[in-house]
Amino acid sequence: MPVLIGIDLGTQSVKTAVLDDSGAVRAVAQAEYPIDTPRVGWAEQEPQTWWRATCETTQQAIAEAGVGPDEIAGVGLSGQMHGTVCIDREGNPVRPAIIWADGRSAAEVDELTAEIGRDRLARLTANPLAAGFMAATARWLARHESETLWRASTLLLPKDYIRLRLTRQIATDPSDAASTLLFDVAAREWSDQMVELVGIERSLLPRVVASHEVTGTVTRQAARASGIPAHTPVVAGGGDQPVSAIGNGVIAPGALLATLGTGGQLFSPAAEPAHDPDLRTHTFCHAVPDCWYVMGAILSAGLCLRWLRDQVFGGLELDYAALSEAAAAAEPGAEGLLFLPYLLGERTPHMDARARGVFFGLALRHERRHIVRAVMEGVAFAMRDSLDIFRAIGVSPRRIIAAGGGAHNPLWRQVLADVFGTPLAVVHTREPAAAGAALLAGVGVGVFPDFQQATERAVQLGDTVEPNRARVARYDELHELFRSLYPRLKDAFHDLGAAYEAAPEA
Description:
- The protein is an alpha+beta fold.
- The chain contains 17 helices and 22 strands.
- It has helices at about 45-65, 105-115, 120-125, 135-145, 145-150, 160-165, 175, 190-200, 220-225, 240-245, 300-310, 320-330, 370-390, 410-420, 430-445, 450-460, 470-500; strands spanning about 5-10, 15-20, 25-30, 45, 70-80, 85, 95-100, 155, 185, 190, 215, 235, 240, 255-260, 265-270, 280-285, 290-300, 340, 360, 400-405, 425, 460-465.
- The strands form seven sheets. It has a seven-stranded mixed β-sheet. It has a five-stranded mixed β-sheet with strand order 3-2-1-5-13, sandwiched between helices. A two-stranded antiparallel sheet has the order 4-7.
- It is globular.
- About 55% of the residues are buried.
């Protein structure tokens, strides 16, 4: 029986899944790593750390699945999007990777958007530019670390560094390249105009191949480190959002995927690369050929709860189950406490790297239960902002599917259904990004004839969560108040950021 390996390089951990040709997940292994923040608003990771964690998980998953080397038919990749890995001619990183959550390029975003113009940016890329995107990061490097670009031979996206380590081949795919804002989303190729406008050399960008196309095979050196047999085919893979969508069965127009992971995303496939004229959402290439998707993204979703657990309640040894139990004891609305989940700035709808997290309405009577519930509700309200934009531009999916770690929390899942005012079908795919990467490999090496049959075998939907109608009305009112807070605070966010940036380093 042929088996497939899917590797998902996430923001906080890497996960490796082993699938068989029935679509069943045979094993999953995970290894965590930190986000380095050398300055407020910065977010970096060491690519070598990614590789070590990847090898740890591939060895563990293969051993747990109990498969022989002759059974492994292919490897697929999924990865955190937007980030920048600068490598030299030997394939070595010349500095830590600057990942999607990094906000240092906020000034470059403003500058490039002003230089290019919003309308022209929409025509060239179908997207707004945000801090942490490769285009903005490359402009920042050119201005502040010119020696880095001088030493770099190629700018890679994070999962493409893992392919490089596996195969010694340099490449990317349309779904990940689209997230750089250096890509022509409609033509599915690098945009020479954007490359010139950003001010980098075209030679820094890798070749682009279809997500399911085989890009190389595992080298002997990588085989020794990873446990994946030498000469195993490796497909291009894709960005974590479109690959997760494959793992959740969202491969064609008509469905919407709401993901509560480290960040939060709403994702809906589209037959054409249509975009929001106000550039509040993203339009990128799907990992499925000749398909695109519209996405709203918030930077901090599950990350907010992790921050609350580790940084605020760190000395209390609370796990997520205990936090959820506390939140369930609070009434909807957390007795007047609202939370703006902008710990890393925000994308949809504000596209503002200088936005910051806020507890609004904090009073002496508020306890741990109110604080945890406010965080859960604040994330749901921020995702509701995206859903309202989708509805306004005519994206009306026939069904909404909930996924991600947060969607498996019964309370948070119910809060999301109540805030959306819409039933949610929960998908039970185990580790959908890693599973989707394996399905990409399966299509690429011929284990599955096409994406439709691959997802039919692998994806199972669970029960539907119905919204509580009384709470829907209450949350509608609270969302209006939530939505009004950012415009009132925007200038203060920017003044605070400017004051910090102007302060001398200690």
